[in-house]
């Protein structure tokens, strides 16, 4: 089972149509260069304690973002056969890790979890 | 109303992955500092573009306002014309606090959007622990009454933190959620939020006057303050497997289709990764997102 975070264009850069930031929320200027996006990705992965997951960084042409209609955030599972096995709805409302988990279990032939442990949907901002 | 995406949805994935990474082929993060990618036709030098100041404006001032005159001129701003043009909303050649903090963007001032995120999280419908997707006026009234434990019609930081503590702190403990609420809702500027201020704020945000605010994403661009209710980007009924409504163009990355291939640079040192290299070997979970 392979996991990747695919780091894409900022959803709420301070110079974007819908800026967010301050009061403990990170402030990001929209990267213009891949190297800038790389550095933001590193800060993000570190601050959110996600470093165990390998991260890939979308090119500044946002091509992968476009192909997967990924913005602002989204979950996918590509099956072992190379086909899309699960395509989550766009975030934030559609970003539901429990759904990805269920899809992974189905793909791997694992039994369903009987009880939910921590509700992952709560554990955001 | 349409909510901005949360920056911290990546954090939600970690709760899933805590279980499954032991089974995954994920390799630990390399600690090497990566060299910036050299790009042949890159004119500007890479800059630090992420910060944690108390406000967007204070971040900009600290970075750019070299003559400390309270505004940022084009000469002081060391990034590109197009971005400066977006920040300089009135086109007078200077970026000011008012343009950045009060006018914000299409979604309104940052403070307003952030207050909305906080209210949703604090009072929004708890659909089995999933992320709140809506908030009715009644939920807000009931929730605010529950939060106001001394029943004095105001919500203090202490009451707010106690309530949020019961709901779960989330992965960003340094977020000053009460501070965000104050910025957006505390019209009296007295450091607490009255239940009346909350309801007035709700009514102002509820632009279609249907007694509820809903999270709705339209077309992937996150514009507009109110959506047509629950559902997919075009208002269709939501399918957990991303079913498209009849007549919609088949998405490139639709269920059952061959996953669009890509080759991307890893965040840390290493060879570029090609998605199709995993076909026939292992499934691949993709978590798309960004920090903000």
Please give a quick description of this structure:
The complex is a heterodimer of chains A (125) and B (292). Chain A is α+β, with helices and mostly antiparallel strands.
Characterize the structure shown.
The complex is a heterodimer of chains A (125) and B (292). Chain A has 125 residues and is an alpha+beta fold. Chain A has helices spanning 34-47, 63-67, 97-108; strands at residues 2-7, 27-28, 55-57, 74-78, 84-87. The longest helix of chain A has 14 residues, at 34-47. The radius of gyration of chain A is 16 Å and the shape is globular. Chain A starts with a strand and ends in a 17-residue tail after the last helix. In chain B, strands 2-3 form a two-stranded antiparallel sheet. In chain B, strands 4-7 form a two-stranded antiparallel ribbon. In chain B, strands 5-6 form a two-stranded antiparallel ribbon. The relative contact order of chain B is 0.13. Chain B is built from nine helices and ten strands. Helix content of chain B is 31%, strand content 10%. The model of chain B is unreliable at 1-9, 19-40 and 217-242 (pLDDT under 50). Chain B has helices spanning 9-20, 56-64, 81-87, 97-103, 110-123, 137-147, 157-167, 177-185, 195-205, and strands at 50-51, 72-73, 94-95, 134-136, 154-155, 193-194, 212-214, 263-266, 273-274, 284-289. At the A-B interface, strand 1, strand 2, helix 1, strand 3 and helix 2 of A face helix 1, strand 1, helix 2, helix 3 and helix 5 of B. Strand 3 (55-57) of chain A pairs antiparallel with strand 8 (263-266) of chain B, so a sheet runs across the interface.
